[in-house]
Every structure is written in C-alpha cells, then in structure tokens.
Design brief:
Keywords: Cytoplasm, Glycosyltransferase, Purine salvage, Transferase. GO terms for molecular function: adenine binding; adenine phosphoribosyltransferase activity; AMP binding. Homodimer. It holds the Pfam family Pribosyltran. The chain is α/β, with parallel strands linked by helices. It has one domain: Rossmann fold, CATH 3.40.50.2020. The strands form 2 sheets. The chain has a 7-stranded mixed β-sheet, sandwiched between helices. It has a two-stranded antiparallel ribbon with strand order 1-2.
C-alpha cells in the first residue's frame, strides 16, 4: 500500500480510511467511524506517526498524554508510548477506582460527567489532550478543565477528525487552546 509523502497527503490518505455511516446513531447524522483506521496496520502506523512526528518538536513535546474515554485511549496510549511519556485516562463517571475530580458538561440531550484521578498529573506538567474527534467540544473542554484544576498545563489538544460546523474547535480555540486536527470534515 502506498504511503503519503506530505502533510496534505496524510490528511487525504486518512480521510480515505474513515467510514461515514449515514443516519447513525439517529436520522440525519453522518457518523465518522475511525475503526477502519485502526484495522489496517499500515494505516494505523500513518495515523500514529502523524501525531508522533508533530510532538517530537521540543517546543510541543508533552510530559504526559491524556486520553479521553474511550477512543482517545486507543490513540493517546500509543502516542504516549512512542513519545516515551506517561499516559493518563480521563474516564466517564464511575469508572476510576481512586479519588477523582469531576467535570460535568452538556450534551445535546442532557449532560455527562468525566473524571480524572487526583494524582494523575502534577502541577506544571505539560499535557497533550487527545481524542478521536471534536464535534461540539464538550468532552474536550471538560478534560482541559480537569487537567488544569490539578495544576497541569494543557499545551495542545489533538484529534483525528474535526467537525467544525458543530463549533467544538472554535470553542476550544476561544479558550486559548491550540488544536491539532488531521482530517477536517467541514461541509462533507
């Protein structure tokens, strides 16, 4: 399988391996399914390398990677391993066994809560927060708030897919958080 040779090609290459599922989980929704990116080892390598090569830059290199439940765990843990830094899971409420801090955020129909162990990060630690995609931004912003409440510095957020028309990337940038996205599905 050919591999991409530039950043533009990486984005297009990854886009070709993201499946769009119409009307899931409800009518009118175009669900962007990343599982094909993970199933093919060559495509998965391109995906991980795109993140790792970006964060090898000493000015961007984190002390730790935090991943959002659940697909952020898949990507974040591998990126942390490749960067030789620790990994911290931010879980849905009730999934962590130790003392936690919580952040509740609004969903389209209701709310959700995510948690982080109180000893997951230390004051001043540089953190990369990662997930599979950003839509409305609620989960990502809740993760930023948790990490910062514990004194960490969220240096950047990263996702595979941005759905900019849903406003999440704009909300995150309005908070002053840089966002790395590999594939943009605006207007698609």
């Amino acid at each position: 399988m050919p591999t991409p040779s530039s950043a533009l090609n990486v984005s297009e290459f990854l886009r070709e391996h993201i499946r769009t599922v119409a009307d899931w989980p409800s009518a009118g929704v175009q669900f962007r399914d990343i599982t094909p990116l993970l199933q093919n080892p060559q495509v998965f390598r391109v995906l991980i390398d795109a993140f790792v090569h970006h964060y090898m830059d000493p000015t961007l290199r984190p002390d730790v990677v935090a991943g959002l439940d659940a697909r952020g765990f898949i990507i974040g843990a591998v990126v942390a391993y490749e960067l030789n830094v620790g990994f911290v899971p931010i879980r849905k409420k009730g999934k962590l066994p130790f003392t936690t801090v919580q952040e509740t955020y609004e969903l389209e129909y209701g709310s959700a809560t995510v948690e982080l162990h109180t000893d997951a990060v230390t004051r001043g630690q540089r953190v990369l927060l990662i997930d599979d995609l950003i839509a409305t931004g609620g989960t990502m912003i809740a993760g930023v708030k948790l990490l910062e409440r514990l004194g960490a510095v969220v240096t950047e957020c990263a996702v595979i897919v941005d759905l900019p028309e849903l406003g999440g990337s704009a909300r995150l940038k309005a908070l002053g958080k840089p966002l790395l996205t590999l594939v943009d599905f605006e207007g698609h």
